[in-house]
Amino acid sequence: MQFKSLFFSVFIGAMLLIGAILLNNKRPAVEKNQPSSQAVRATGKCAQCHRRETPAVVHQFEMSRHAKKGITCLDCHRVVEGQTSKAHRGFTITTQITSKNCAQCHKTEHEQFMRSRHAAPAWAAVAGRKAFTPKQLAFAEKYHKGAVDRAANKLAQLEGPGAITKGCEGCHNIGKPNKDGSIGTCTQCHSRHSTSVALARHPETCGQCHMGPDHSQLEIFKESKHGALFAAQKNLMKLHARPKTLTTKDMSVPTCATCHMSGLEGMKVTHDVTERLSWYLFAPVSKKRPGYQRNQHEMKELCKKCHTTSHVERFYKEAEVVVHSTNQKVKEERKIIQRLRKKGLLTPQPFDEPIEFLHFDFWHYYGRTAKHAAFMGGADFVQWHGNYELLHLFVKIKKMAQQIEQNAARKKSNAALKKTNKP
Ligand code: HEC
Ligand code: HEC
Ligand code: HEC
Ligand code: HEC
Ligand code: HEC
Ligand code: HEC
Ligand code: HEC
Ligand code: HEC
Question: Could you say which of 41, 200, 254, 315 has the lowest number of CB atoms within 10 Å?
Answer without folding.
Answer: 41
